[in-house]
Amino acid sequence: MLSSVAFLSGPLLQASTSDSPYCRLITAGLLFSLVGDFFLLPSRADFSTRDSTKERKISASFQLGVVAFAAAHIAYVFAFLSDSGEISRGLLTTTFVATMVLAKWLGVVYPPSHSSAISNVLDLAIAPDMKPLVFVYALIISSMFAVAVSTVPSSLSTVSPYQRSVGAAMFVASDLFVAKDAFGRSSAPDQRGWFRIAVGYGLYFWGQMVIAGTVGA
After folding, report:
1. CB contact burial 70-83 (16+ within 10 A = b; e otherwise)
2. How confident is the model at residue 10, as a pLDDT?
3. What is the 3-state composition of the chain as percent helix, strand, coil, each rounded to the nearest 5?
4. What is the DSSP letter of 87?
5. C-beta separation of 8 from 34 below 8 A
6. Less Cβ around it within 10 Å: N or C end of the chain?
7. How far apart are CA 23 and CA 26, in angstroms?
8. Could you tell me if 127 and 59 are in contact, meaning their C-beta atoms sit under 8 angstroms apart?
9. What is the phi/psi pair of residue 114, to 5°?
10. Extents of the domains making up the chain
């Protein structure tokens, strides 16, 4: 939570004195992410009592966290589009489709009951009532990543034209760790090593920092 507040402070201060839609939308995305962090924190207690061989019941707090992060990705989509000198529709479509295909292969989208090399690679078991929410979230985050990759900043507000693509990619990768921890059958609580936790959190917080750094850079 403290890390989220830290990288939110700069864009928030700038948004209070700026009329830039990009700045305001990125700030909104960071705020929604902070709300998502808040809702996901109590949900982590659920992991300590999980039967790793079955679908587990997902708390309302976790679901609210997913909704908050979906709202953050939507804000980022509008932000990237508001500051876009050009957009490659071919790259947009290709990236979106490829990301959704990858999500299906990994088992994030409507996974089959068994894991194999060609389907449900992460060995996820998602409860039936959660599958539509996860599917919609996958559509939204795939759209965010596709828009980030296929647009070029018009104001050159970033240190690199690829900065927000990198941040978006890190965010997407971090969500795979969340999916594995939340829905993975083979991920019992005592198997969640410090390295995997560190990588997941590192990707998320640094990804957010990279995106926040595109404001007024």
Report:
1. bbbbbbbbbbbebb
2. 54
3. 70, 5, 30
4. E
5. yes
6. N
7. 5
8. no
9. -125, 150
10. 2-212
